[in-house]
Amino acid sequence: MNDMTASPMPRYHQIYLLLRQKIMEGVWPEGTPMPSENELTLAHNVSRITIRSALSRLESEGLIFRRQGAGTFVRPPKPERRSEKLQGLLENLVEMGLRTEVKLLSFTYVAAPADIARHLNLKTGSVVQKSVRIRSSKGVPFSYLTTWVPEDIGHHYRPEDMAERPLLAIFRDIGFPPADAEQTISCKLADNIVAPLLQVELASPLLWVQRDVRSKNGRQIEYIEALYRPDMYEYKINLVHEGDVWSHLDADPAAN
C-alpha cells in the first residue's frame, strides 16, 4: 500500500496525479476497464470518497468515461500534431510561444537584487526590466514566467509586444538575436500566489526552470525563472552516443 501521509498535498490530488500519469503512460489500454473503485481504494490505502474525487477530476478533464454496469474506461488524449520539427532549444521555445497564449501580469523596472544582477552580469541595484506572465495551452494555464532583462534592452519593446509575441523573437527583431542559453531544471512547490494562477493545489510539485540567455556577442540579455505544471509540460532531450560518451543533440520543450 502507498503511504502518502507525509505529503502536504491533498490525498485525492495525489491519487489523481498517479492515475493521470498511468493514463499518459498507457498502463490501461483504450477500451480496457480501469481497476474498480474498491480495487483502487485497497491499492492506495485511502477512502472510497478520495478515489471518487480523483476519478471525478480525471473525468472532468476528459481522460476517463464511465459505463453503467461496465466500469471506468480510459480516453487517452490525442497527441498534438506539429506542423514542423525545429531543432535546438531556442527555436523550440519560440515555436512553443507561437502556438500558446500568454497573459502579461506585470511589466515594471526595478533595482536588480544581487542574484539577478549576477545572472545578467550587472552591478547589484542596476535597473532591470521585470515581467511576469502566465502561458496557457488551449485555455488552460501551464507556466508562470518571471523574466529579467537589462534596462537598455527592455526599453526597445512595450508591454503589449510581450502579450503578443515570444520574447526570444522580440530580441531577434530589436537587434539582440539570442545565440545560446544555459538552463537548470529542478522542482519547486506551488505557493499561494502561483497555485491559483496555474489552477493547481497549494504545494503541488512544479518543474522549476532557470535559464540564462546570451546574444551572439556573448552578452547576457535575459534571465528567466519558469514554473511549469508537470501534467501539461514535458522537456525532451535528444542524445547521440559518440564513443563512450552521450552528447546533447537538441532539446524539445512542449506544452501538452
CATH architecture of the largest domain: 3-Layer(aba) Sandwich
How many DSSP helices? 9
The first-level CATH class of the largest domain is given as: Alpha Beta
DSSP helix fraction: 25-40%
User: β content, as a range?
Assistant: 35-45%
What is the fourth-level CATH superfamily of the largest domain? Chorismate lyase-like
- Kindly identify the CATH topology of the largest domain: Chorismate lyase
- Poorly predicted regions are 79-91
Tell me about the biggest sheet? 6 strands, antiparallel
Provide the number of structural domains: 2
Give an account of the 3D structure.
It is a single chain. The model is unreliable at 79-91 (pLDDT under 50). The chain has two domains: 11-74, Arc Repressor Mutant, subunit A, CATH 1.10.10; 89-255, 3-Layer(aba) Sandwich (Chorismate lyase). With 256 residues, it is of the alpha+beta class. 25% of the residues are buried. The strands form three sheets. It has a six-stranded antiparallel β-sheet with strand order 3-4-5-8-7-6. The longest helix is centred in the N-terminal third of the chain and has 14 residues, at 11-24. It is built from nine helices and ten strands. α1 (11-24) packs across α3 and α2 packs across α3 (48-60). The protein starts with 10 loop residues before the first helix and ends with a strand.
